[in-house]
Amino acid sequence: xxxATKSVPAMQVENARMTFGTTQALNGVDLTVENGEMxxxxxxxxxxxxxxxxxxxxxxxxxxxxxxxxxxxxxxxKKGKIGSGVRSHRTRIGFIFQQFNLVGRLSLFSNVMVGSxxxxxxxxxTFGLFPxxxxxxxxDALERVGIAQFAGMRSSNLSGGQQQRxxxxxALVQGAEVLFADEPIASLDPVSxxxxxxxxxxxxxxxxxxxxxxxxxxxxxxxxxxRTVALNEGKIVFDGPSEELTKEKLIEIYGPEYETAFYGGxxx
Length: 268
Description:
Layout: E1 11-20, E2 23-33, E3 38-42, H1 49-56, E4 68-71, E5 74-78, E6 81-82, H2 86-89, E7 93-96, H3 108-113, H4 122-127, H5 132-145, H6 160-174, E8 178-182, H7 190-207, E9 210-214, H8 218-224, E10 227-232, E11 235-241, H9 247-254, H10 257-263
Helix pairs in contact: 5-6, 6-7
């Protein structure tokens, strides 16, 4: 894996604004994530956390009133315009989606090799003629995430947890230095969800991979991420150590319904 640039933040967002119709999905968000951090983004549905990740990766274009969004020192977008060279720079950014985004009819091995498309010749990618070093990298990545034994299986025949780990392996083959994971465990059963979070935690600690992960599960944010950023109505309402996410703070973030949903309205 490529060593992340140390002199600049992994992600820097300045005055991000994003509007969908009459909804302000992001309302002046400023956020810096340093290299080597594992940061959780939490908040109610529609709070802007997924939009923030997509804007950072330039998968969605922010409003023209926005400031600059950079990843590893490269301008991804500014004032509603994509920065130059973003396509090639995206090879340094792994993006993990809730629904895995693997091609079901292809083997797991082939899906993981797809991560190399940004750095091999176009004709090789078109015909699926992956060089030997890519094949080795794919197997190494599958070993790393613990599913090498399923390399030859069609992705559509794998469990959700196996597919998600395959998506992470693909990002490793890609050579990603920053991993944006957008609700990566939302579609998984509890056992698979924990395995994926443990894998992200391991990659962060032992491979120096910067991880920014959106989560609905606050307990996982507290367990695996030293820092949590909470959004509500497009604004950051908390940014600090995850251990400071007390019951009172979570009610403040999510509203009084949080207490009813998770504590049954108990005042104790």
